[in-house]
Amino acid sequence: MSSDANPEATGSSPGQPLAEAAAPLGAAETARLTDFARACKAAARAVVLYPRGHPAIAATLGRIAQITASASLAAPLRITVLPDGLLLDERPPAKADAAVAELAVLLHSHLIGEIKVHPGGDIEAWRTFLLLLGRTPESVRADGGIARVWTTMAGRHVELREIDYAEVLRERSSGEAAVWDKVIMNCLQGSSFELDEASIKELLGIALDSDKLSEMMATLEHSVDRGGGIGAKTAALMRMLRGIIDVVSKSDPERLEPAVLRNGWYVDDLYAAIIETPGRLLAAFSAFVVDTKVIDGAVNGVGSLVRDGGDRLRRLQTGYVRNYALGVAAGAVLILAFVVARAGV
Fold this sequence. Notes:
It is a single chain. Helices cover 66% and strands 8% of the residues. It is an alpha+beta fold. It folds into 2 domains: 2-166, no CATH class; 173-262. Strands 1-5-4-2-3 form a 5-stranded mixed beta sheet. Strand 2 (77-82) and strand 3 form a beta hairpin.
């Protein structure tokens, strides 16, 4: 079961932080939400990385099925999804946890605004749902969106409410806030900037104000920093810069050059996106792949080869005289045969 959700109705919108008005969850509810997020993340990783019969899949799916079983879950879990966090019954957890933020990023990338978990979902039902989450957001949206796809799969233990960005922008008051959200949404999704005249004027004000532009870039970076990785952050920043320049150049080209000059042709921003970010990626690859897998793997492999070879050669030393005598006799026969063969030649 699924439908479209308006983030305004749940106290959230794309790019906003966790709601501050609601009181935090108690210790028990916070633990329940955290355990669910950790189990979901572990199981989602397992179903994508390992084949169906792998023990890791059975263990992780068994954990999430246990947490959401009827005996453990008296009532459905109603979880609101924000770009960087989750709310349980409209209330944030009392203590931050990385698993909660990571699950929020994963769900939000599929434009899920709310998820309701009903008690009783079995291992196979959770496996089907997590395999759907493991698909790329682009491929799911190409099939009509995650809510529609999940409905066709007859998923019953989980209800999804998909974010309706168009409804958000219609209901919000016109101005900088709506433009802000739409620009960030387009940068995250890779779509082009389609703004009306009023929105273009607001975007001009943002582009020509270095403080506002820096704040927007920080918001965008925060939206993709936890789950999108370095590549996603670089692509989003580049799309934002290209989109803003394109909109401003078409709407008010005379104001574009002074803005670009005042911001140093965005050299620092481009340097961070093109040089600094790939450099960090290369360093991380060298540290966590080349060093641990290649170098350490080669050293450990040589040690294992020597150890295994020694174990096999050790078996030749039985300690029985009869075995050594047999070896001497066999050697003598081989030498005699060699001498006879040489003499025959």
